[in-house]
Amino acid sequence: MNTKQVEELTGMSRQNIRYYERMGLLEPARDDSNAYRDYSEEDVRRLKLIRMLRMLDMPLKDIEDIINEKVPLREAVKRQKQVLQTQQKQLNAAIEVCASIGREKDDQPDVDGYLSRMELMERNGGLFARFVDDYKQIVHEEQERKFSFYTESAVNTAAAFEKALRKYADDHGQKFHMQKKGKYPEFMLGTETYTAVRVLEKRKDDEKPAIKIICEKKESDHRSGQMPEKRRRALRGIHIVATNIRRYGRKSILNLILSMLTVMILAFYLGNMTGTRRQLKEMPEDFTISGEIWNGCGEMNHGLFISHQILDALYESSLIVSIAESAELTGSIAVDDTDSGDVDSGEPDGEDAGETEKISLTGVNRMECLDGMQGEDITWEDGMDWESFQESGGACLVSETFAEESGLSIGDTAGFDLARYSQGLAGVILTREELQPETFLIVGIYKEMAGRDGGNPEVLLPLDVVKGIYEKNDKVYFASALSFEVTDPMMLNEAKKELSGAGLKEIIYGSPNSYVGIGVKLTDSVFIRSMESAGRSLTLLESFLPFIFLIVAAAGYIIPSLLFQNRREEYAVMRALGTGSRFCSLLLYAEHILPAAAGALAGAGAGVAAGAVDAGDAFLVWGSYLVFYMLGAAAAMWRFGRFSIAAVLSHRD
Questions:
Q1: pLDDT tens digits for 134-156?
Q2: Residue 109 and residue 118: Cα distance in Å, rounded?
Q3: Which of 309, 501, 604, 647 is a plausible cystine mate for 652, CB 3.0–4.6 Å?
Q4: Residues near 302 by beta carbon (within 8 Å), at least 6 away in sequence
Q5: What is the rounded CA–CA span in Å between residue 461 and residue 311?
Q6: Which residues, in sequence order, are CB contacts of 167 under 8 Å at separation 6+?
Q7: pTM for this model (two decimals)
């Protein structure tokens, strides 16, 4: 087999298969004519084994030993199980520490205690081995990184600045050396190099601003531990962000609550929109649109004359199903002259026959032809059911009342003198036409139902039998009543076009009465109103969605702008001490986004718990909110950094 077939059988990509070949784990045969690879069933089995072992996170070296039969599969899998169990213990330990911190009521947990605990895990092969060392180093560096002091003398010049710094060094018995003078001087204190900045700070008990000098150690090119610069900056950022979130706890909590409430509202909004979409999708499945043939004025739905052209069009349509068709005959029980004396059951004019013992015989193809009929309403002859009844050529059902009055029962044979009505004068007047007598075997008795639409015929016949009677008597067949269902409510307009093409029209109430079945009545009004209402709701919800996310973006701009107002001096000090603008902006941005993200996640979870959205939609709401909120916050951060650092530090801004 070729590579494509192997890909389909193993679920591996071509690149992976080639890689395992290069590693010597697979050696497919080659076609001598074209040198193409020809994989065998054994090759496929080996690839599946490799894939299984890789999914167990087994190293390729161990897999190679198994393939080369250097190590038994059972032994290798047993060793891998031990490795996975060790990793599982490490992950469980990490999860336990996270859970412990989450249960802390204090916003400032015992960091030293947790560090000791993680160090113990480290010694036992824990997950925090490298992180603990690096983070401890960063925390230690940050503690020694910055110091500040107040000075009573004015610091308006570079010389005055140097004088204040020298005085601090002398007071603390440290060696001082000025390296660079100016508004942001650089100097050595002992063996470390610092940058200094002067700020005015208003004290609570003193109306006159005090002069505060902040000093920060410069980054050394030769740091202990040889930590990569990217990791150092990342851990330092995490430490600063976490510290500031705790320091500005009220603002962080406010940010978190606002985000949570907003996402909860969005979740319910999206849930409403999703529910409306689902309603539009499922509504056609919940609705059954049925139709009936009536006369043109809408006064009769049975005893009609429905032409074979209409019948053919309906049966041929793929949009119409469950056609319940019936055809009515009239007549009387045939009476034997030798038993009944001078009784004549078939007068030529048909008038006396219509007045004496007149019965209705109706051919049906479905139970639905009789309103409300159920299978349990029929008492059948042994071995007979509805399907067998329809396939029989000379069977009938009789009503309970007719059976009682006529003395007939299941298994009897009954003869009937038959007639039918035909149209006269454009379907306004009916004319009776005699038909040949027929004899039927009674195979069942059905229960009558009071108020049944179309009445309770004395005799029910299979529809094909009635069609055969028409054909035997050389008469044109007309259906007397007909109902149907539309296969797909969403194809309702197409179904209406086909009905119109078949010659059916909408009912015009008040038009002249007739027996012609040319009107159609559909139960589509509720479906149409429901679909239109749901469609309008969905359109309204979708049209407001962009404005909602615009509001979210505006909130992402306004809220950070308000929260950043008191952070300008802090930002200016960081910039003056040599921290890059991008790093400063990223720190402030992260301090604002992280509580917002946590609050949004809580709001999404609340939406799931309330049943407004499922997990997938909740994640969509959370992600969408965060994207637009971050865009607004980014705009606020960009605007926030556009000020003069010197003006802010001297309180001129």
A1: 676 677 677 767 888 888 888 88
A2: 14
A3: 647
A4: 326, 328, 453, 454, 480, 481
A5: 19
A6: 151
A7: 0.52
